[in-house]
């Protein structure tokens, strides 16, 4: 089954939110922007509106809710009232309604909500669905770094998100990969409704990329750098239609966009997935 053409989303995690990055993204044809209420010390939305408010209409903008300023810095909550207020505040601070709002890492609070965690997740998702119906956002989704705690909670009582964002790439473990795919199937999401994040495991300069050559997974890997190949393969681990990448340099963003025409060798990816699962089973036994 052929998925949509791969798409790069400019992620603003750890970004300085400079205007030149946004103009550079538009020049490269990158028109999707992803941020969060807690990015840049809970100032991301205000800074975006102040430094690039005239550019935001040219992007589809996604953000996330779930983290809040707390007495010890940051706290996580799935309280429906707080989530609804956060979506309202996001629209106000951005100067426009976000196109997409993610429920941010719900697993952080679900671990503390046993035995009522299913009800807590359902209420949080319903709050975002209500925000969509009120016109506070165009759509809503779930963004989860560790979807394993969420998998067993999904049933007909939990509203279906429009988009699921999960970790993607060669450094994703077998358990996380399987959990992501189980969620994708449970919510019947197509490739275009699944986004990846953290395709380099946090850094393109990590030593692992000196030891691992992702070009082995491509049909035409000789044309691409290791970083480019790692991004291209990430669209298949799991299968996603978009990947959020973080950078402050338009040149680096351009390098990543240049990876998209690369062709992945699906058989090699499947062999790698089997190795991952076999290793996981051996360690779990």
Number of strands: 10
Tally of DSSP helical segments:
12
Order of helices and strands: EHEHHEEEHEHHEHEHEHHEHH
Radius of gyration: 19 Å
Instruction: Output mean pLDDT.
Output: 93
Q: What is the class in the CATH system?
A: Alpha Beta
Q: Please give the alpha-carbon distance between the first and last residues.
A: 34 Å
Poorly predicted spans? none
How much of the residues is beta strand, in percent? 15-25%
* Biggest β-sheet: strands ordered side by side in the sheet: 1-2-3-6-7-8-9-10
For the structure shown, list the relevant keywords:
eight-stranded parallel β-barrel, 285 residues, alpha/beta, TIM Barrel
What does this structure look like?
This protein has a single domain, classed as TIM Barrel. The protein has 12 helices and 10 strands. It has 285 residues and is an alpha/beta fold. 40% of the residues lie in helices and 16% in strands. The chain has an 8-stranded parallel barrel with strand order 1-2-3-6-7-8-9-10, surrounded by 4 helices.
Short description:
This protein has 285 residues and is α/β, with parallel strands linked by helices.
Explain the layout of strands and helices.
Layout: E1 7-11, H1 19-27, E2 32-34, H2 39-42, H3 44-52, E3 60-65, E4 67-70, E5 73-76, H4 80-94, E6 100-104, H5 107-110, H6 117-133, E7 140-144, H7 148-151, E8 163-167, H8 174-186, E9 194-197, H9 208-211, H10 226-234, E10 242-246, H11 250-257, H12 266-284
Parallel strand pairs: 1-2, 1-10, 2-3, 3-6, 6-7, 7-8, 8-9, 9-10
Antiparallel strand pairs: 4-5
């Amino acid at each position: 089954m052929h998925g949509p053409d791969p798409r790069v989303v400019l992620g603003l995690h750890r970004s300085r939110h400079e205007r030149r990055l946004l103009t550079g993204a538009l020049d490269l044809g990158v028109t999707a922007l992803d941020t969060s209420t807690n990015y840049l010390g809970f100032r991301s939305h205000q800074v975006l509106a102040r430094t690039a408010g005239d550019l935001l209409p040219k992007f589809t903008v996604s953000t996330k809710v779930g983290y809040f300023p707390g007495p010890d810095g940051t706290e996580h909550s799935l309280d429906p009232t707080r989530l609804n207020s956060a979506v309202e505040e996001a629209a106000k601070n951005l100067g426009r309604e976000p196109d997409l709002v993610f429920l941010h890492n719900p697993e952080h609070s679900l671990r503390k909500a046993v035995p009522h965690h299913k009800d807590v997740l359902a209420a949080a998702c319903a709050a975002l669905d209500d925000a969509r119906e009120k016109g506070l956002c165009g759509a809503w989704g779930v963004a989860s770094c560790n979807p394993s705690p969420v998998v067993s909670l999904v049933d007909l009582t939990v509203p279906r998100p429009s988009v699921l964002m999960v970790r993607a790439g060669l450094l994703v473990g077998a358990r996380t990969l399987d959990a992501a795919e189980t969620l994708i199937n449970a919510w019947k999401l197509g490739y275009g409704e699944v986004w990846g994040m953290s395709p380099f495991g946090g850094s393109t300069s990590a030593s692992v990329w000196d030891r691992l050559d992702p070009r082995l997974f491509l049909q035409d890997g000789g044309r691409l750098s290791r970083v480019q190949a790692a991004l291209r393969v990430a669209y298949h681990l799991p299968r996603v239609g978009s990947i959020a990448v973080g950078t402050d340099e338009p040149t680096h963003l351009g390098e990543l966009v240049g990876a998209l025409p690369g062709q992945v060798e699906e058989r090699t990816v499947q062999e790698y997935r089997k190795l991952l699962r076999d290793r996981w089973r051996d360690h779990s036994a």
